[in-house]
Give the backbone structure.
Amino acid sequence: MTNLSGQIALVTGASRGIGAAVARALAAAGAHVVITGRDAKSLEAIEEAIFEAGGSATIAPADLAEGDSIARLAEAIAQRWGKLDVMVHAAAVLPELSGVRDIDQTQFSRALTINVLATQALIARFDALFKAADDPRLIYLTTSVAASPRAYWGAYAASKAAAEVLVASYAEEARNIARTRVAIVDPGATRTAMRAKAYPGEDPASVKPPEAVAERVLALLGEQFASPHRERVNLST
């Protein structure tokens, strides 16, 4: 089993869904997990569940749409721990599904801000903390539509594809000059609120739970994967 004892992990989008499941899994493996998201009450519930299971966590409510929030988060982690061993970037926003010609510009702008600009800001602000760790790893959660465009998913797909390019480029830049390893993981169909929003008629029991993705993410963190690594989590329910 993956042992993350003594490691500091940051999970974005940790207030629910895959992010919350990943946070619990990393804490169970021994990491001290910094959980961030916009919903403070939900973060508190995740933190309490981690404590009750014998793990440790720190909540850090933040809206990634606000550029200063990422800078403040990085500074707080730097002052307290001086390093970051693991980042699992799960936060994302799904704009309304529509044809490209009908994309709502306000929603598209927010998707670009959170899905793309925040991703770059996280890399920029935490690069030095990665370099201070012995075996730093960044796992970015993506979507299949980023690589295989689908009708009516253009706004979301474009934002995630752009973020993928940033993450993969960072991996290439770090390849020969840093220890940071990067993995881009497509969770596949998973039982989340975002999935329910996109597929309102789908039976939630027909797709795997977030814990299945968290289990794979945790296992990946225990592997010496080559960077950049790409995979899709295909698991039955």
Notes: The chain is about 45% helix and 15% strand. The longest strand covers residues 181-186. Residues 8-232 form a domain with the Rossmann fold fold (CATH 3.40.50.720).
